[in-house]
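Repro case for the chain-ordering regression, as requested:
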Amino acid sequence: MNRAPAPIERAPSRRPRRDRPLLPLAVTTGLFLIMYGAGAYHFENFFSLTVFLNFFIDNAFLAITAFGMTFVILTGGIDLSVGSVMALTTMVSATLVENHGWSPAIVIPLVLVMGAAIGFVMGLVIQYFKIEAFIITLAGMFIARGFCYVISVNSIPITNSFYTDVSTLRIPFLFDTSISCNVVLALVVLAVAFYLARYTRFGRTVYAIGGSEQSALLMGLPVARTKVLVYTLSGFCSALAGVAMTFYMLSGNGLHALGMELDAIAAVVVGGTMLTGGSGYVIGTMVGVLIGGTIQQLIIFKGDLSSWWTKIVIGLLLLAFCLLQRAFARTKRT
Amino acid sequence: MRWLGFARQLTGKRHFWSLAMLALLLAYNLVRDPHFFAISMYDGHLTGSLVDILVRGAPLLIISMGLTLVVATHGIDISVGAVVAISGAVAAALIGGQLSGETGMGEVTRFALPVVITGALGLALLLGIWNGTLVAYFGLQPIIATLILLGIGRGVAQLITDGQIITIYYSPYAFFGRGFLLGLPFSLFIVAAVAAVLTLLTRKTALGLFIEAIGDNPVASRLAGVRARTITVAVYAVCSLCAGIAGVIGSSNLMSADGNNAGLWIELDAILAVVLGGTPLSGGKFSLAGSVMGALIIQTLATTILSAHVAPEITLVVKGIVVFIVSILQSERIKMLLGSNRQDPTRTKGTPG
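-- result from build under test --
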């Protein structure tokens, strides 16, 4: 899929950059601190724990789905279906709980299995038929979004007591502030993802595939199984993010998480993970999400800017980091 | 066994499957409604279900042809829907939404019509050059480069229209989407013109061959003296320009610009049209006629679903599943299983993702 520059020239860039592995993460963290500092300088009240925690509260679902996406991108793949799977999760949850009276205890595990199954099928097709990931996950994106509209073209509000209770539950934090359940959920996923990436055979295989799939295969690593698992994990994370979004929004809507795939990819790439795979950190993705959150808050604080600017700025930031990655890969060559 | 051989020969023909699918859809419609093929002159204008399919499908037809060239270079452009929204918004903004006179339609525009069209199409062209430059000169994956514009584009369209749906009251603008020339809808002339220009450019010059060479093997084509980067930029520019034209037709047909919904999901339809038309997503060869047929299949399918009183929401699912199935059928593994592997299996393609 990489275009014009000759693959011959490009070959060295696919190697994992073990020599300077922390540089992208440092750049990202620096950018976050600068943006946050600029916000604190310009706006009163920006430098407060409440605002900082809002980054987490408002973006917990994005973080959860971006952690799954990190693994996909680490293998050199991509998953465009995440936003639609999130929307489908909110829709299925809402319709089963509200219109069919199912218990959340059944619905939540069910939607998680559904998300994982969607990812599993896409991964299987990508791996078995050797089709480029973007086209299969693009089809998945349309199918999942389509099913939302099949369920209902209208928004379904959720009044079930379990969902409203979780939604309003605040866990006390330092200095009279509090966080929502979603934040705890996101942090748990972060911890699990961190462990998976760093301390398991699965994680090491993911990095190896991204570094060079051929070498990973020659080393006898379970490439096929791992690649399918990576998409399954991403589907599962998207469904989990969808559950978190259901708590946050308290409704099922086919228009939820529209364009979330861009935000998730941006968080991963801005977080220092190479789009070509093989190099990156789950922690970096967390910082990427925080940068997205900072942009969002800055635009809200500014007040007179349309919320569309958030999307535009995040898109441009993604672009800047993509170009940075290319430049980085090029200087490595010479 | 002679008939079997004949059948194999027939099904092996390039556009057999897409033609068969189109014929099947039309036949179903004919059975359901015997007047389906009826075309009549009404008020000097040609009308009928078939004309209707062509007119409604005009934007898709144009975009699919542009996208075909991008896909032929082993690229993809998922930003076409956003470009449709932007060009419509620019046109509406340049005309300005003033209501004049009692009729609700008027002759008032802030800029002359040629300026309006040049502005709308010019911006679309620039966006295409932007996409192409990112892909060809900065080495971004096409899906990422165009995903960025897909994400940003609707925001830009919203900024141009100020978040509102702008209604266009300038009646001459309606000609592109609703007008008639020689008894035929004018949009069909635009489709024909785009088809003629692209066919001449790619089949009567070496350009088509160059595009296929880039899709087949970018390194080899460059070593062979093909200006791969320039052509890649040009191809994305043409695709985006096609989306711009579609945006003008669409906004002219509705006489409004809606940044949210104009061209929504049309990238799916266009990709579907291209793959149905027999252009492989791995590039290296393409068929403009095939994509035209693909677009007609999709439009006929949409009309069929509407008239068969099936919930229109299901179309998105059906189209997604068709993309899924067609890309599986196009995969090397299936070709090997069916024993008709005409491509060299040792040929290497870019890495997935």
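Ordering looks correct now. The radius of gyration of chain A is 20 Å.
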